[in-house]
Amino acid sequence: MEIANWLAFLSIAVAATITPGPAVFLVISHSMTAGWRQATYTILGNVTGLFVMSLCSVLGVSAIIVGSSMLFSIIKVLGAVYLLYMGIRLWRKGLVYRQAGLQQRKSDTSYFGQGIVICLTNPKAIVFTTALFPQFVTVNQPLAPQFMVLVSTLLICSFVCLSLYAKWGEEITNKLSGKILAVISRCLGLTFMGAAAAMFLSFQRRV
């Protein structure tokens, strides 16, 4: 792979992973409720989901999903339902427990699982990975090493960017009052619910 191609891919990967989306908001909420270390399991789950999605893209499975109206619609509905569920939870429970010394700790598996689900039910991420990788592959060179470099680059960018958001979420939690954290919690909840509504509307337009 040419270095120019890799640098171009790197810039897109950084821009995509640092842009706030469902995974970013989930990691921030977990870091604010349970701390940066627990949020790391959410990050690892999201990166695992991204690896599966990238592998499907490389193997052509993602293209089949995107091309199938029924399969893609099912994923969109599942993603919207999950975002709505997360939004309602954030709105009702808030983020004030951690500051009060009553951290909302769950099992590591729970955080990891939520990270996977938020990734695999994101239809935009499926379209993104499906369209991204073929643009940076040199066809007259071995494909496997190129895909390994591209996928690894995307996963590392995702892990680093989400880790920065997690650390930031923990830092502001330690500095803000409970009332402000409650407001932030509801804002995050509204963001999830808004994203769910947008996905439902998008689904209805296609039906």
Percentage of residues in DSSP E strands: under 5%
Largest sheet: none
Number of helices: 9
Distance between the termini: 41 Å
Number of strands: 0
Sequence stretches where pLDDT stays below 50 over 5 or more residues = 96-102
Return the string of H and E elements. Answer: HHHHHHHHH
Shape: globular
Question: What share of the residues lie within helices?
Answer: over 70%
Please, how many domains?
Answer: 1
Radius of gyration: 18 Å
Structural class: mainly alpha
Mean pLDDT over all positions: 79
Describe the 3D structure.
By secondary structure, the chain is mostly helical. The chain has one domain (22-206). Helix content is 82%, strand content 0%. Helix 3 crosses helix 7 (123-132). The chain is globular, with a radius of gyration of 18 Å. Residues 96-102 have low confidence and may be disordered.
Features:
mainly alpha, globular
Question: What secondary-structure arrangement, pairings included, does this model have?
Answer:
Blueprint: H1 3-18, H2 22-34, H3 36-59, H4 61-67, H5 69-93, H6 108-120, H7 123-132, H8 143-175, H9 178-206
Task: Please sum up the structure shown.
The protein has 207 residues and is mostly helical.
